[in-house]
């Protein structure tokens, strides 16, 4: 009886030891897996902590696709085509035009007030337009904005985008206004009025 009891006791202890070792290994495996999930390499949002550097046209390129529901991507393609595939040249022209616009706004802050916008709103809108037409001058953009404000209530089809589209297709502002339904005399008068308004806004501080 004594030998059988000792044998049974030994088997029971062996079983307990095996169960204990299995439980320990399982716990260690879970601990290693949990460690990766709580902040190891690749955890969380890989974009957190990053920021887009730069400003002007370059900042607009980074963010405009989302803001314009993808229209900016098409605009960049147009910019490349208008520079005969030399997209870097188109982007450089856009950057130079953006830089000149900044200088103009700094010297004449009243320009933004003349179109009922803040300087930042006007700057951002112009930089977005440059992605579709890198040759667009700041004065042309301001004039297109003001013309749409002056004429839009009577001629709903005369919008800033419509005028900018004409300019992008190598039409002058006067030609574009006539294309949009104005008579030659009305187009000339509208241009004269906007020219006066722009000159006045440049004098404001």
Please describe the topology of this protein.
Layout: H1 2-37, H2 56-67, H3 71-82, H4 87-107, H5 110-114, H6 119-132, H7 138-151, H8 160-168, H9 173-179, H10 184-203
- Rg, nearest Å: 33 Å
Number of strands: 0
Give helix % range. over 70%
Question: What kind of sheet is the major sheet?
Answer: none
Instruction: List low-confidence stretches.
Output: 21-54, 61-66, 70-74
Q: In one word, what is the shape? A: globular
Mean pLDDT: 75
Number of helices: 10
SS-based class: mainly alpha
Gap between N and C termini, in Å? 110 Å
Could you spell the SSE succession in H and E letters?
HHHHHHHHHH
Beta-strand share of residues? under 5%
Architecture overview:
The protein has 205 residues and is mainly alpha-helical. Helices cover 73% and strands 0% of the residues. It has ten helices and no strands. α2 (56-67) crosses α3 (71-82) and α7 (138-151) packs across α8.
Question: What's a quick, concise take on this entry?
Answer:
With 205 residues, this protein is mainly α. Helix content is 73%, strand content 0%.
Give descriptors for this structure.
single chain; 205 residues; globular
């Amino acid at each position: 009886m004594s030998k059988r009891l000792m044998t049974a006791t030994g088997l029971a202890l062996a079983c307990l030891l095996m169960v204990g070792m299995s439980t320990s290994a399982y716990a260690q495996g879970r601990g290693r897996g949990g460690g990766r999930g709580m902040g190891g390499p690749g955890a969380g949002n890989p974009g957190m902590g990053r920021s887009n550097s730069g400003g002007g046209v370059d900042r607009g390129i980074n963010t405009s696709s989302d803001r314009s529901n993808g229209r900016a991507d098409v605009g960049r393609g147009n910019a490349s085509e208008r520079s005969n595939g030399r997209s870097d040249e188109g982007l450089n022209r856009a950057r130079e035009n953006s830089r000149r616009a900044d200088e103009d706004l700094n010297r004449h802050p009243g320009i933004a007030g003349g179109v009922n916008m803040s300087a930042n709103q006007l700057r951002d809108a112009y930089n977005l337009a440059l992605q579709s037409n890198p040759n667009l001058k700041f004065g042309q953009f301001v004039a297109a904005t003001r013309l749409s404000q002056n004429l839009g209530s009577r001629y709903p089809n005369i919008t800033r985008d419509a005028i900018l589209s004409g300019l992008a297709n190598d039409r002058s502002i006067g030609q574009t206004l006539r294309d949009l339904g104005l008579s030659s005399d009305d187009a000339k008068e509208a241009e004269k009025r906007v020219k006066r308004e722009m000159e006045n806004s440049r004098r404001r501080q």
